[in-house]
Structure formats: C-alpha cells, structure tokens
Amino acid sequence: MLEVEGIHTFYGLSHILFGVSLKVEPGEIVCLLGRNGAGKTTTMKSIMGLTPPKQGSIKFKGEEITGKAPYLLARKGIGYVPDDRRIFADLTVGENLEIAARKAREHEGWDKERVYELFPTLREIESRKGGCLSGGEQKMLAIARALMGNPELLLLDEPTEGLAPMLVRTLEEQIKKLREAGLTVLLAEQNVRSALRLGDRGYIIDNGQIRYQGSIEELRENEEVRRKYLLV
Ligand SMILES: Nc1ncnc2c1ncn2[C@@H]1O[C@H](COP(=O)(O)OP(=O)(O)OP(=O)(O)O)[C@@H](O)[C@H]1O
Ligand SMILES: [Mg+2]
To answer: Cα 69 to chain center, whole Å?
Structure first.
C-alpha cells in the first residue's frame, strides 16, 4: 500500500530525515514510534506532500507519488489527520463533516451516518460548534473528517496525545475498528503502550533515522531497544 524508500527531508537548510524507509501493507496498522522531535511528524508530512523530500521515493499502491500535491494525494486515497487537528471552529460538528465529504469510488463509502456509528459521541454533539469541543471530541472529529474523504490509507499523527487514559482506550478501540473496516493505518506515536496495544508492526525513528523495525510482539519483548530510543 505504501512504500517509503530512503527519503531525505529538509526544513530550509536543516536536514531532518536521513534516508527513512518504511512499508505499510494493506490492512495493517503500522506504528511509527519515537521521542519528541525524532521526526515522526516530518515523515507524515513528507508522505502527504507537505514537506516533499529532496531525495528518495514514496510509492502509494505501486505508483510514484513523491512530490505530488497534498490535494492530489487526498484524491488518490490518502487521508491525513495532523497532530494539530485543524477543526473549523465556526462550523458545527455536522458541518465540519459535510464539507469533507467526497464520493467513494465503490459503494462501500463513508458518510455521516457511518461515521456517527463509529463515533456515537459526535452524533450527540452534531450541532455544537467546532470551537466548543473538548480535546477528545476534537480528536474524534479530526479522524471522522478524514474518513469522510474515503481514504484507503490513513496517516494518524499522535491521535491520543494529551487525552485522559479512559479516552485513550476509547480512541484505541475506534482505531481498531478502522482496521476491521478495511482501512490501512500509519500511526505516529510517542505513547508506546498505546502502540503496543494497537499495532501490527512498528518502526522506531530517532534523530531522523529508522533505528528499529519489527512486529509488535518483537517490540514488546525488546526492552533494550525501547529503553534506548523511547525511554520506557
Ligand atoms: N517547521 C520547522 N522548521 C524547522 N525545523 C523543524 C520544523 N518542524 C520541525 N522541525 C524540527 O525537525 C525535527 C523533527 O521534528 P518532528 O516534528 O518531525 O518530530 P516529532 O517526532 O513529530 O516530534 P513530536 O513528538 O514533538 O511531535 C525536530 O528537531 C524539530 O525541531
Ligand atoms: Mg510530531
């Protein structure tokens, strides 16, 4: 589904990613783990065309997409939920969803009704303004909005960050349901516990380089690697 090969990404003159490679197979939840400033968000933005890499290649369903504009990638089926959410504060929850709607290529698409089945809370607050939502509600709305674009691959940047433990669990269950619904997910996380509960495979990024890759079971058992790069 997604193949990132040796990408180098810069912000101006600062070299941030050094040959990052990773793969996501259809139907997987792959976690990209790393501490603060490790390069998780930059990797997501590189894939989504927001900070195109200077070197390396990114393929989506076998097609070269390196350097393509974000809106084209959205059309091709990549959904992106940034860490800062970008909910429209003046629009209601329902309106935030409606403006993100995009026709599905197949009949099995997402619409408001299906999104509300996954996030019942959003139905209850449908007429509330985006600016009046709690952090957890905003996170759900951001994911729900991405679903309205009918993505095949969803890039989730720290979806549980800053949430109370109970909400983290709820959101994890909802993300698992996305996999059941046939979505493929690349999840950037600092929260290793969350990743261990959710993911199929994991990569650890540190200082802009991939330091480790393996199945979630291998990562769970490898305390040394977790301590070295994740401080847990
Ligand atoms: N707009 C920017 N301009 C310059 N440097 C940046 C910019 N954004 C991020 N960086 C730097 O790039 C590096 C990687 O940042 P990035 O946001 O990708 O890390 P992250 O793993 O997502 O961290 P966090 O857990 O804080 O979200 C950091 O050293 C950061 O200071
Ligand atoms: Mg980040």
So the answer is: 18
Number of folded domains in the chain?
1
Which residue owns the Cα nearest ligand 1 atom 31?
A: 37
Nearest atom in ligand 1 to 83's CA = 27
Greater pLDDT, 93 or 221: 93
Residue 19 lies in a domain: no
Asked if residue 106 is part of any domain, the answer here is yes
* The ligand 1 atom nearest the CA atom of 190: 25
Q: What is the pLDDT of residues 20-37, one digit of tens each?
A: 999 999 999 999 999 999
Amino acid occupying residue 201: R
Q: Distance between alpha carbon 221 and the CA centroid of its chain, in Å?
A: 25
pLDDT for 123-153, tens place per residue?
Answer: 999 999 999 998 889 999 999 999 999 999 9
User: Residue 15 falls within a domain, yes or no?
Assistant: no
How far does the centroid of ligand 2 lie from the alpha carbon of residue 94, in Å? 28
Sign for the pseudo-dihedral over CA of 117, 101, 60, 170: negative
Task: Say if 60 falls within a structural domain.
Answer: no
**What are phi and psi for residue 39, nearest 5 degrees?**
125, 15
pLDDT digits (tens, 9 = 90+) for 178-227: 999 899 999 999 988 888 899 999 999 999 999 999 999 898 888 888 88
The parent domain of residue 99 ranges over: 24-50+68-230
CATH code at position 77 = 3.40.50.300
